């Protein structure tokens, strides 16, 4: 069956991969959070960015649980902070957001199999080595979301979601505390550890 509208109207903001891990402590608050971007296209070029809140409730993290943003493209870091991360309340409202330490990422690599049991992203630079681990992966879901269904409130978003039932954030060999929780997206229950592949964010004509 042909698509009703083969060309999605609007302006492409960026496209790529956007996995993340949000861990919760016993009281239900976030104990550690990480959001990774592997951007294939944006107005400021390609690149890879890792947002890490090792200590989400504090302005300054600790040596074992730092708050930092690691990147191999400084312009992309600024673009995402202003146009995307800054519109996601759970990240933008964190005490450390405005003063995040920026670290140059020297190496970035993925490993594992998103069709299997385990997948990882590792980012290193500036004395930091951060490994994100997703395990117990669920079958993928293809999503097409409208602005009222996404965190920015301003985009149409297309993506392939692979939820994970367990995950870890490891900083310089130290595993940050917390466990994977549940969340609701577009009316269905999923988890706070997720792989997003082929993710494209489009600003609709009425917003652009």
What does this structure look like?
With 208 residues, the chain is mainly beta. The protein has two helices and 16 strands. It has helices at residues 74-83, 89-92; strands spanning 11-17, 20-24, 30-41, 47-53, 67-71, 101-104, 107-112, 118-125, 128-137, 141-145, 156-171, 174-175, 179-180, 182-185, 188-191, 193-203. Strands 1, 2, 3, 4, 5, 6, 7, 8, 9, 10, 11, 12, 13 and 16 form a 14-stranded mixed β-sheet that branches. The protein has a two-stranded antiparallel ribbon with strand order 14-15. The two termini are 30 Å apart.
Topology of helices and strands:
Layout: E1 11-17, E2 20-24, E3 30-41, E4 47-53, E5 67-71, H1 74-83, H2 89-92, E6 101-104, E7 107-112, E8 118-125, E9 128-137, E10 141-145, E11 156-171, E12 174-175, E13 179-180, E14 182-185, E15 188-191, E16 193-203
Parallel strand pairs: 5-6
Antiparallel strand pairs: 1-3, 1-16, 2-3, 2-13, 2-16, 3-4, 4-5, 7-8, 8-9, 9-11, 10-11, 11-12, 11-16, 14-15
């Amino acid at each position: 069956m042909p698509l009703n509208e083969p060309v999605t109207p609007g302006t492409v903001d960026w496209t790529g991969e956007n996995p993340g891990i949000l861990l919760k402590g016993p009281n239900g608050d976030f104990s550690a959070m990480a959001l990774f971007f592997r951007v294939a296209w944006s107005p400021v070029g390609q690149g890879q960015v890792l947002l890490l809140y090792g200590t989400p409730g504090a302005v300054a993290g600790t040596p074992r649980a730092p708050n930092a943003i690691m990147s191999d493209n400084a312009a992309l870091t600024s673009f995402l902070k202003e146009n995307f991360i800054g519109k996601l309340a759970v990240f933008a409202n964190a005490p450390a957001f405005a003063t995040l330490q920026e670290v140059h990422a020297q190496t970035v690599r993925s490993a594992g199999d998103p069709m299997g049991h385990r997948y990882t992203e590792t980012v290193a630079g500036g004395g930091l080595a951060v490994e994100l681990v997703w395990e117990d992966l669920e079958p993928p879901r293809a999503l097409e979301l409208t602005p009222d269904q996404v965190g920015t409130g301003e985009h149409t978003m297309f993506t392939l979601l692979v939820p994970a039932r367990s995950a870890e954030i490891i900083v310089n060999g130290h595993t940050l505390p917390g466990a994977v929780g549940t969340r609701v997206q577009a009316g269905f229950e999923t988890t706070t550890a997720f792989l997003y592949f082929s993710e494209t964010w489009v600003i609709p004509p009425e917003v652009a």
